Amino acid sequence: MSARRLALAAALVLGAAVAVVLAVRTPWSVLPAPAGGAVAPDPTGGLPPSYLTRADSFAAAIRPASLAGLLLGLAVTAVLGLTRLGGRLVAALGAPVRGRRGRHRWVWQVVAGVLVLTAIGRLLLLPLNIYTEVVLHRYGLSVETWALWARDVVVSLLLDAALTAVGLLVLVGLARRSPRWWWAWGAGAAAALVVAGSFLWPVLLEPAFNRFTPLPAGHLRTDLLDLARRNGTPVDDVLVADASRRTTSLNAYVSGFGSTRRIVVYDTVLHQLPDDQIESIVAHELGHVSADDVLTGTLTGALGAAAGVAALGWLLAWRPLLRRSGAEGPGDPRAIPVVLFLVAAGTLLATPAQNLVSRQIEARADLHALDLGRQPASFIAMQQRLAEASLAQPEPPRVWHLLFGDHPTEAERVAMARTWERLHAG
């Protein structure tokens, strides 16, 4: 069997492994129906008409820009990857490297190429991103200064480019050393990078955007640590993130592994929610820990990354595709724009399935919050406040939610809480 066919076979086997893990680990049925049946979602989510009008207005202002940004981003990567424009740009970036350093010109081409190509995409999307930030300010969802916003744009660009460059340096380097079997070694390297990133993200990357301080001693800190103890989750600390510099949104999460695990609460949550609702949010996040959702996500991410690299090995062995960029093979840095396009297209195609799984996992965490806290009224009030803080429609258009919704709707979450009440009545 040729190396190209083996790459396809490996991609299919690894993809099937991802499907099996998701099928087994995803809670497809979360809450049994009580006597009398489950409570049907109220399209209003129990929110007042004035809020619903404002949420619909916000969605009408922001959703077309989000969709346009998605399509424009894909179009830019397609133009750069499926024509010789991107390949010529990467080749030109290697021109200044001469002499003895010329042997390693490909390293510079990969690093500089990724940075320049990423910057081009961000610059072309900048008007839409500025419009989005203006809308967020107009509706009170962002309080970020434009200086801080620009800083975040630059930091995000550099982080994305750095992480992408590391991955592509590994793949191009392997392809130059082993032109036939690079994808096999690359699949293993991609899986390892995903696992490493999962562990390093809380320690190295989260601090790039927020500052964290310990939650002062008091009833809330004691109650959150007790909640974690009752959940069987060892927690090292409870931290507060200074999210209010940027947003009015409400959030909390559990970050890290083992001795580095900590509960993180946005300072906006402390300012806007009573303690019982904060505990309900944290109980939801502890549900992800109890179900090992991060580890499951890391496993499926590693398998998916390996499958993606194997698929690249199959696709990049197709000469007509490489000729479109002028690349001679996967070890040629001019193939980078093609790889970026294939990754972007594959990510977009996988998004609806990923969101389907995510909605089920989030519903299980909601059930865990109800079981652990046993305060459905606080849970409902918390969900309504989360919706109000983000101006989310309690029941968005069905197609939009199926494609892009990674959580149950607010109406569905409130209905689950009322179903839980009915199930536990008496």
Task: Explain what you see.
The chain is mostly helical and 426 residues long. It has two domains: 3-209 and 291-423, no CATH class; 212-282, 2-Layer Sandwich (Zincin-like), CATH 3.30.2010. The chain is built from 15 helices and four strands. It has helices spanning 3-25, 49-82, 84-93, 105-138, 146-177, 182-205, 219-230, 267-272, 275-290, 293-315, 319-325, 336-373, 376-390, 398-404, 410-423; strands at 212-214, 237-241, 252-255, 262-266. Strands 1-2-4-3 form a four-stranded mixed sheet. A hairpin with a 6-residue loop joins strand 3 and strand 4. Helix 2 packs antiparallel against helix 12, helix 3 (84-93) packs across helix 4 and helix 6 runs antiparallel to helix 10 (293-315). The longest helix has 38 residues, at 336-373. It is globular. The N and C termini lie far apart (65 Å). The model has no long low-confidence stretch (mean pLDDT 92).
Task: Considering the chains and any ligands shown, give keywords for the structure.
426 residues, Zincin-like, mainly alpha, 4% strand, 15 helices, four-stranded mixed β-sheet
- How many beta strands in the DSSP annotation? 4
Low-confidence stretches: none
Choose one word for the global shape: globular
Task: List the helices and strands in order.
Answer: HHHHHHEHEEEHHHHHHHH
Distance between the termini: 65 Å
Number of domains: 2
Q: Could you say which structural class the secondary elements and strand pairing correspond to?
A: mainly alpha
Q: Provide mean pLDDT, rounded.
A: 92
Task: Please tally the helical runs, counting DSSP H or I stretches of 4 or more residues.
Answer: 15
Evaluate the radius of gyration: 24 Å
Biggest β-sheet: strands ordered side by side in the sheet: 1-2-4-3
The largest pleated sheet is described as:
4 strands, mixed
Report the β-strand fraction as a percent range.
Answer: under 5%
Percent of residues in helices:
55-70%
